[in-house]
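User: Run a structure prediction on this.
Assistant: Running it now.
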Amino acid sequence: MVRLITHNLLACHVKGCTANNFPLEFKDVQVVLRESEFNPDFLRGFIPKIDWAALTGAARQLGDTSLPDQLPEMLDDDFLKTLHHVLLEIHVEEGIMICPNCKHNYHIANGIPNMLLAEHEIG
């Protein structure tokens, strides 16, 4: 499933594409919202792994503007519930993720990103 928690960890891995290859940009997406169980302890533990600018940029590409530009110092339950929604409940079902550097397209079908490369693209 392409959720923003997963997207925040994905970079282009085409041979020679080693700079400006993150975050992948969304294009022509179909988004579905799916509820998931709220776990504030998991979120607090995962926050240090998040690239905040990439997360907020991706969320905005998908039409969600609920996260602040900067990670707040106060991680209260209201903020964590908003973060939970953005990271775990927004699912990209169909579309494309595009490398901002080499413009390689990674297609998403039935919620699954195809990150496989052709032999000449493997580094």
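The first strand starts at residue 2 and ends at 3.
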